[in-house]
Structures are given as structure tokens and as C-alpha cells.
């Protein structure tokens, strides 16, 4: 029986006893995507790349891309690094009425249906149906009921299935997408509050969500397709904010891990896993959280790399010729504050530090700005045209110094930044990839 990549993970876990999983790369950043595909190529892995509904939607999102455009971008990067496209799993994250949550249900859900339809018709194979948010005409004082969430989610699934049937007419071998549901969905991009701990999803809520979704599927005559639901989003007790990090504690998730084992066709999906230690990520996978969402940590790594290069630029390049990337990013963010001002609180000095160093990494919304892109390319060109002393590289990028010393990565500015992303990817590979520690790539 042919299985898609998501069902293959479930098969390996349930039938082979391999505690494997997969990182979900949630980003539209080309440096991140390139680094992830190159690392995936190194290990022969499938790579799951997801576009979030506020990044990519039928109106363009903040990236200006529709689902087909994002797919084209990812595939162009794959061609550039010679990564096989059939090993790319394209996903849609937080697909639902999130972007239009201030509108009443009728219009918000109509737009959400158009959104999921575009994603499926564009060939995306992992669809996160997220209807967990209140809409404009929902009560402001009462919690959104699981019934309402499931009813809206089932309606979106029905649209997805109709779109999939259209694809089958063109290609009878088209694989059906895999779906993720869940009513305890953290907001994209991390918490806006400084939290010391977060409540782990209750077992009874997990059971109730699955039960209610099945009932809503049954009402629409879709119950026989429920095995397309491969995962459920839960809160496993992880979160991050500007400078705080709530670390995973597996003791608190024992009941949740035992509960998901009652559904052999499903795994847990954990959001906001950014900045967790490798061992904690591995424990999450062992405990049933087989899909680990990561996004801001990856673009944080890009910013970290760009800033390190900028420090070296100040040492090596005359002032008049510098790209001054940190200053350009600051200028662009200040001119258009809508993507950070509600997230960063405090004095002007505190907000300045957060714009540069916050774990929530709101600068990623400005990466595609033409001025930022020009500054980055100028920074790369400046440093590629001078000699960077190894002692200086050791000062600002010590891990990359080790790889340059051993000739394992090219000594170019772009590759140095991408390797900062690889540092994060390797944490997730350690946690999720069974072949990571046994691959022959480690045998000299």
C-alpha cells in the first residue's frame, strides 16, 4: 500500500516502533528554505515546508504570494540546490478564518473556504484546518465551543475534498492531502505575554475534540474520510515570548501521551517549539508530538548571522561603503510599525532592543522589503570581496569557524548565514530523524 509521507511517519511509529517525526518549517524566507533543502538533501530526507495563512493566501498575504506562487518559489529554490521536488511536502498552516477573524462568520468562512481550496488545488499535501479563533459575530465573553470549531473545520474539510476530487480528474494518482485539526492552537509567532508556564492540553479536551470532529464529519457524510486526519494540535506546555522560554516538561504530558496512543492513526502536532533544547525536542517526539512546528527560531538565526557579518563589516569595510544591515532593518521597521508595535511593549529603549533581539522575531515580516534585500546583498558582496581573518570569524561566528577550518562549508557570506540556520535544523533532525544518527554521512 502506497502511503504519503505523513502516514508513513505514523506507520513507522505504530508498526515498526521507530519514534520518528518531522519538523515543520514554517517560513517564506529564502535563506531558510535553501538551508533546509540542502540539509535535507544531505540526509535524503523529506522536507516539510509550510506557508501560514497570513503569509500566503488568495489575496497575497504579507509576502504578496498566493499558494501557487509560494509553491513556485520553493520549487525554484529546490532546483537551485538540486533537491528533488518529490521529497518536498508543502503544507498550509493555520488555514481558516484567522486573517478575517474580525468579520462575521458568513464572510470570514467564505474567504476561508476560498483559501483552503486554493491550497489544495495548488498541490499542498498537509493542511492544518484552524478554526479555533472567535469571529466577528461570536460572543466576546464565552469561550468558543468545540462544537463550533469542529463544525467550521468540517466545512473547510468538505471544500478541500471537493478540490481534491477536481485534482483526481486531471491525475488519477493524485495523493489525498493529510490534515491536522485541533482546538488548542497557539497564535502564530509566539506569545505576546511573558509567561513562566502554560497549561498542557487536558486529556478530556483531546478526546472531546476528536469525538466532536467525527460527529461533524458524519453529518456531512465524510466520516469514511476521517483517516485523512493524521494529527491534532495540542499545547504540550511550550511557548516563547520576547525573552522568555517555557521549556518542555514531559512529566506534565504523560496523560496526554497515553491518550493519543488510543488513536493509532494520529499523532500530536506541537506549535511554538522554537528555542527548545535538542533533548527536549527529542522527548516531545518520543511522547507523541511527532510534528514539531518551527519558524521564528529559523529567521532569528538568519538575523543573528546577518548581525554577526555586520559586526565584521564594521571592522573590514570603510564606513562609506558599508551595507549597515541592522540600521536598514531598523529604519524599515520604524517606518512601517504595524507588524511589531502591538507585540513589543515598554520604553523606547526596550522596544529598540526587542526589535533587534526578541525571540518573537518580528523582523521577519520586513525581510522581503526591497531596501532590506539590497542591504543584505551588499553585505554579502562586501564580505566576499575582502579577506575575513579566521580569528575574527572565530570571534563572531565560532561554530562556523569550526566548519570553515575543516572545509565542510564554503567560505562565503551567504553560506555562513545559512549555516546559522543549519544549527537549528540539526536540533530538529536529532529529535525527529531516525536516520540522522545512523546515516553514513557521519562515517569518514
Give descriptors for this structure.
2 domains; disordered C terminus; TIM Barrel; 8-stranded parallel β-barrel; GI Alpha 1, domain 2-like; alpha/beta; two-stranded antiparallel sheet; about 450 residues; about 45% helix; globular
Number of helical stretches of at least 4 residues: 15
Shape: globular
CATH class of the largest domain: Alpha Beta
How is the CATH topology of the largest domain named? Answer: TIM Barrel
Secondary structure: helix percent:
40-55%
What oligomeric state do the depicted chains represent? single chain
Task: Give the low-confidence spans.
Answer: 437-444
Structure notes:
With 444 residues, this protein is of the alpha/beta class. It folds into 2 domains: 5-294, Aldolase class I (TIM Barrel), CATH 3.20.20; 300-420, Orthogonal Bundle (GI Alpha 1, domain 2-like). 46% of the residues lie in helices and 11% in strands. It contains 15 helices and 10 strands. The strands form 2 sheets. It has an 8-stranded parallel beta barrel, surrounded by 8 helices. Strands 7-8 form a two-stranded antiparallel ribbon. Helix 13 runs antiparallel to helix 14 (398-405). The radius of gyration is 22 Å and the shape is globular. Mean pLDDT is 94; it is low at 437-444.
